[in-house]
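[audit] Reproducing an earlier prediction to check determinism. Same input, same settings, fresh worker. If the tokens differ from the archived copy the diff job will pick it up downstream; this log only records the rerun itself.
[audit] input (378 residues):
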Amino acid sequence: METLNSTFLPKQSIPSFKIHQNSNKKPKIIKANSCFTTSHRTKDLETLKSPPTKKRRNQSFLATIFNNLDHLICTFLDPPLRPAIDPNHVLSGGLAPVSELPPTPCAVTEGSLPPCLDGAYIRNRPNPQFTPKGRPYHFLDGDGMLHAIKISQGEATFCCRYVSMHKHAAERDAGYPFVPSVFSSFTGAAASTARAALLVARVLAGQFDPANRGLGAANTSLALISGRLFALCESDLPYAVQLTAEGDLETLGRHDFGAADPISTMTAHPKIDRITGEAFAFAYNIAPPFLSFFRIDSGGKKQKNVPIFSMESFSCAHDFAVTANYAVFFDIQITANPWWILRGRPPMGRTRRRWRGWELFLDMRRTRGIYGGLRCRG
């Protein structure tokens, strides 16, 4: 299955269920009562009432200090926001955030759904849980939200839910988005240094634990691996999710595929061998080996990491390709350097020094299960 930001699950992956029969009622517009507003055309559903976001009543004194310091950074240290990271520009039109919606029967206003069509279409996209007022925001910064349309017996049910991950929960408790983004949060030397130091302070104080509980937003793609559905973002491990019999979306948890050789991140674009049922993926690192390739067998068990030493420096490869005999990786100009923060630059970006023309690595030649290496540059 080609791994995109959405996928279609066949009938075998989703149990059947009984849908509400209220076909005599006219469709109506339902508006979510939350920090964001969205409209959904439904047959019969009460108005979704999400409680307004509030800070925790028992928020510690230290957490209050962190929140106030973050506010000072945004107010006095951040330079004026350029349009590319201004939430007033970015979060508009089709990128406007929406609220969660429980399973909602949908009205068919024209035509009909074929009874033989049985399954679900699920999409993953960034969707911020807070309006980042006055804060820089990139369209890839939002928390992962799954949107599902379950079709069965000529009826359709829509649902959208956030992927439940550590970043989402920590920011919900804080009452605002405090995890810096490599795409937007580092826009000036003073603000960047202060924001990085504040994040380190939160980690040391135990208010944020990315090392053990993950850092990613699970907002990039979906993949069906060994019969299980995962929401992915390359800055973290995959998150197992499921569609319930009622058409609801649930997060089962962060998943490492039972790795004897541990990983902390994984590409958001694994490749599936339709013949063997195996999945192939990689993870990149800021220290050698900069790239590690691995296989997940048809039973969902991760195999040993195989380092790619032909990748001579860190490169945000993001995606790759797999053939019957090769795995193809791209050495691109996008790299990472934490010291750039002190210069007011994002820690990830393009570097001219690396530009040596278009480069392509052909690695991991597979012959009878034995892996070897071959490098080719153009």
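[audit] rerun output stored. Observation attached for the diff report: The mean pLDDT is 80.
[audit] end
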